[in-house]
# Entry
Amino acid sequence: MNVYEARHAGREFCNDTEGSDHYKKGGVEPIDLMIAKGIIEDFCIGNMVKYATRFKLTRNLVDLKKVSDYAHILCGVELGKT
# Structure
């Protein structure tokens, strides 16, 4: 496998992310409140570090999917500022 194949496979796997249903109950997701209050950056970075570190122990690809999801959220928030 080369870097292009690895990147494509990783994107395909990590592309399917969505918050759990239990976060959607009550009308507003907690992360939406963090975005609205401008405190999302540290939350996302902290979670990326947490899941990346956990992956070293678990070897669970879902942990990397979560790293990707928080990176996408943070990137989207930053893009929304322009």
